[in-house]
Design goal:
Elements (H helix, E strand, L loop, with lengths): L2 H6 L1 E10 L2 E12 L3 H9 L1 H7 L3 E3 L6 E4 L4 E8 L3 E6 L7 E11 L2 E10 L5 H24 L8 H4 L1 H20 L5 H16 L2
Antiparallel strand pairs: 1-2, 2-8, 3-4, 4-5, 5-6, 6-7, 7-8
C-alpha cells in the first residue's frame, strides 16, 4: 500500500474532554482492521501481542493493575472490558497524567474498528501542540498493528530510517493539522507553527 493509503485509512478527530474534573483535550484515531475483535483484543492487551507492533510491556496486566512500556509510558489500568474497552492512565516522565481509551467495535465481515482516544489536561494554546504530537505519535503504531494483524512482522527500524517513513510523518502531521483547522480549535497560524515544530521533533531536524 502507498503512504497516502496508510494515512487515508485512519479517521482523525479532536475533542474537549474532562480528566478528573479538569478540562482537557483528546486526539481521536479510528482504524478498521481485517481481523476479529478477539484477534485485535489479543494484539492490544497481551505482552506478546503488544511487543510485536509497539513496545515490550511489563506489569500486573489486569483491571486495577499497572503497566510499564519499555523506555516509554506507564500507568494504571482503570478498566479492562474484554473485547470492548481498555482505559489507562498514561504517565511519561514528569508530564501530567494523560489517559488512553481503546474501544473495539465489530465492523462486519470479520473486521473490527479500533478507536484510540489519547487525552491530556491541556487547554488554550497547549491544545494544538498536544493533538499534533500524540496524533502523529500514534499513527505509525496503528499502521504497525495492522501489519501484525495481517500476518506481517512490522519492521520497527524502518520507521526511523526510511524516506517513506519520513514522508508518512509529514502527511500524518498535515492530517492532524487539518483536523485542528476543520474544528477551528486554534488560529491557523498557531496550528501551522505547532505543526512545523512537531514535524521537526519527529524528523530530528
Amino acid at each position: 500500500m502507498s503512504i497516502t493509503d496508510w494515512i487515508a485509512e485512519t479517521t482523525r478527530d479532536a475533542k474537549s474532554r474532562t480528566l478528573s474534573g479538569a478540562p482537557g483535550y483528546a486526539a481521536v484515531a479510528r482504524r478498521t482492521y481485517g481481523a476479529s475483535p478477539e484477534e485485535v483484543w489479543a494484539a492490544v492487551t497481551t505482552p506478546e501481542g503488544i511487543a510485536q507492533w509497539f513496545l515490550p510491556v511489563s506489569g500486573d496486566l489486569r483491571e486495577s493493575g499497572t503497566f510499564q512500556l519499555e523506555g516509554h509510558a506507564g500507568g494504571d489500568i482503570l478498566e479492562c472490558a474484554p473485547l470492548r474497552r481498555l482505559h489507562l492512565t498514561w504517565v511519561f516522565g514528569d508530564a501530567p497524567a494523560n489517559e488512553v481509551v481503546v474501544t473495539l467495535s465489530p465492523a462486519g465481515d470479520g473486521r473490527t474498528t479500533l478507536e484510540l482516544e489519547h487525552a491530556a489536561p491541556v487547554e488554550g494554546d497547549e491544545v494544538p501542540g498536544f493533538v499534533l504530537a500524540v496524533g502523529a505519535g500514534w499513527d505509525p503504531a496503528l499502521v504497525a498493528l495492522g501489519q501484525r494483524l495481517s500476518g506481517e512482522v512490522p519492521d520497527k527500524q524502518w520507521w526511523f530510517e526510511s524516506a517513506e517513513a519520513r514522508q508518512f510523518t509529514r502527511e500524518s502531521v498535515r492530517a492532524w493539522a487539518d483536523v485542528l483547522n476543520r474544528r477551528q480549535i486554534a488560529n491557523p497560524n498557531a496550528v501551522a507553527k505547532d505543526a512545523d515544530e512537531t514535524l521537526a521533533f519527529y524528523l530530528g531536524e
